[in-house]
Fold these 2 entries.
Entry 1:
Amino acid sequence: MAPKSSSPAASNVVHSLWKAYSDQTSDRLKFIDAFLVFLMLSGVAQFLYCILITDYPFNAFLAGFSSNVGQFVLTASLRSQVNPENKNEFKEVSPERAFADFALGSIVLHFFVYNFLG
Amino acid sequence: MLSLHIVALLIAGAQAAVLTLQSPRFTVTSSTGAQLRSEPISLARPASIPVTLEKDDVLKVTFQVIEKGASKGVQPHQTFLRFYDKKSGEEGIQPIRVTNGGKAKFELNMAKPPLSLPPTSDAPLQVTLLIGSPLHSPLSVALFDLVVPASQPAPVHPDEASFHPLPEIHHTFRPEQKLPPKPISAIFSVLVLSPWVVLLGLWAQTAPRVPHLLSPSILPFIGTLGAFQGLLVWYWADLKLGQVLTYGAVLGLVTIFTGKQALSKIGDQRVGRK
């Protein structure tokens, strides 16, 4: 996963960063991170298609791309709220409350996305 | 009283004296003053040769209105010259001033034609003298035919160009958008779907254990969330907005209860574990 770098020092830094992430991040957060990566890749692919080929079913592009962006924002906020290290910042927000917010936000987002699909 | 008046008028009309013209005459002079034509007018029939006026010529018509059988002049109430173009149907009425003694003189200067002269066509103007008087029977005398120089074309109104049908409007539309060729669509379909492989691969490595997922307190919440997604797919495929809002409201109530139950159970477990 770590990109190959020509400089050994830079390679070393990236390697240690990756190692620290693998070791110190819980599986639950990695699970969420995987979803974030997926959303980002999917959004980039759709955006490339819109720019390079055609935006012809523009509503479909809007629906797909905005669902990626919106879901990314919701998931990122879920991740920051359930991260145990951020406990002091979100004292009154329990992880359950965060997940309930995430579920409600996702349902509303998906409703609008399906409206755009046409 | 009224009927008596009408009767009196009728009697007066029956006994009305007839007016006639004495020594009617027309003269055409050029702008230099040379007399081109001067003829007496015959009341019985109009002049056989039309009177022709060139540019800057002056036409003079003189006569005296008298009662037939008497030599005393009469001043009628109304005296008009009527210029009538038989072809175009246009006519112009020019009032003539008559003196107390019944003498009248009319001058038509073609250098400064009166407004009452109708626009010319290729037919001559018929000139008629009309005399009206309450004490006499009306008189209408065809004097002569008059040929005048062609009038100037009517001035063009500055907005005249706006009062014509405009050219037909042809709407132009953007050309129909086309789907890209099939191979490109296929390549990008694979490209757009490929993140799913990444997602599933990463999840396979990092999937956290979910020991309570199928417990009776949590499963309903997961089920209702799944039902929401199913409802939205159904909305995309078939449902109308009102239907999906109704079903969604019902499903939302259920979800609130199941979610509260499931999340409070999880919360209790989390707190108890600590």
Note: Chain B has a mean pLDDT of 84.
Entry 2:
Amino acid sequence: MLQTESTPYIFSELYNIIFQAPAYVLFLEFSLLLLVVWIIIHKQSNGEKSLSKEEREEIIRNWKPEPLVTEIDQNHPALVNNHIIDGTVGKYITVDGIKCLNMATHNYLGLEEYPKIKESAINCIQKYGVGSCGPRGFYGTVDVHLELEERLAKFMDQEEAVVYSYAFSTIASAIPAYSKRTDIIFADECVNFAIQKGIDASRSRVVYFKHNDMRDLEKKLIEQHKLDLKNPKKAAKTRRFLVAEGIYVNTGEMCPLRELVELRSKYKLRLFLDETVSFGTIGQHGRGITELLCVDKSEVDLISASLENAVESIGGFCVGSHFIVEHQRLSGLGYCFSASQPPFLTQAAISALDIFENEPKIFNQLNDTAEKVDEQFRYFSKLELRGHPISPVKHLYLKDIDDSDKCEKILRKIADECIKKGLAVAYSEYLPVEKFPPRRSLRITINRLLTEDDITNAFKILEEVSKSVV
Amino acid sequence: MIAGDHGRIKNPNSCWTESRGFYLFYFIFVTVFHLILLSLPFITTSMAWTITNLAHNISHFYFLHIIKGTPWISTDEGKHIRETHWEQIDDGAQWSRQRKILFSIPIILFLLTSLYTKNNEMHFITNFISLIFVLLPKLPSFHHRRLFDINKY
């Protein structure tokens, strides 16, 4: 009963609604209905042309696979300039069977004098084995890792520290963890390769300023500031980073940290400082450039350093406030996706930190040695010394020769001849993809244990060889 | 954070809306919201439909066309920082299945609302304006385009 009465009622109501409506309403509704139908029928366009069967086969026929291994040039520097090193690397190093004074590797503090480090590492192997078998977040955390992080934070007088398993990936992961596609990075031209890769990985816009040239940096900051004034909405969402090294491994120069810190607060930058060389070498307690130049820890947003140079272990670390460090535990790719440091090397780093804390005099000794080398090595007739006087890394450049290929040949020959005469110095190798290829040089690293006689002897050998080669 | 992927992975911010479960949830959510409105004695049927339609379109506009980026820090170095959710759907491919569905829903809801409000002029104008707000930014020609640089960065 009910149905028969209500059904015509609905239809008449529908009829009333539709035919009493104004024309524009009906028109709009009808076109919307058509739009829905069109959307349902419309096919998704991929923007790709569909190929016929012949065309597809043609493409497959023309495809030639690239060989897995290409032919290698037999004169490739990696094949030709090989040296074989025996035994432990300390103050002396055995290269190709010749015992040489070591001015080539980055063990500045001569920690081989302390057998305690080796003992603690061996004890650690007996307890944990050789590997940690997993990333930190995936069964790879051993108590020594936590201890090392705590100790590093305490040593650097910061809130927290995060330890990476490889020094290269420390800063190369830390930069892209913060700086994204829409941000800007201001970086020194001579930053090391790890920083360059970190900047690349961040996909941010990068502005390089001239090496240690604060005027150039300020000029570029002012340029950016002018751009920001034109588009304040964009500027409000853009983060600006400043990346510098404490002591530049590629030049041996120290960064003018006080000026950098001033510019940081003036232009609201976030300052990342890489202390690959300067950690454990300069400053009264070896805390690096912030300690040496008395810069407050809050003025530098993130400090990253290597455990492979002064500490003579493996790995690297970042220190900073709680926020800075915790962010990397999920966003630092080198931290998340790489197996953690082997526990025994972590233990070795802890033991090295014990020595740093108990015997801060070693840093003064290293600085004195570096200054002595600096004084003597200024007097080469064919070579020119560059680098900060207390820097443990210095570079020797050829005087009066600019052509880089010619320099490379001569410097390689000098390095080889020096090894034959019992002095190991390294020709500073760079990859061809380096952003601003540094000037060709011999890299001198200073060991704390070098005596004055050693330095004089090294000077004599280098002077003699360079005179005969050039 | 997507660990251990080999090859291309879908944008996790937009691929969850592909699932059928999402559309079931969508339908139930809107229906329940509407039924609650209808059950309130001081709201007329026309008013309930208009409120449902407006609420639906406002949330469409806010969630699909105003919020940008992803709620977490992704490993793609901020590829989607300046993209709205609508632009992230299917990596920007136009007229995909998901887009068709999300494009049609507000229109169908609008037509139903017009019917139940008996094409009353005030209701019609309000609902139509809200419909324009959710349809225009969905058009392919508005992909990555911001009128007067509103909400650009």
Note: The longest strand of chain A covers residues 240-245.
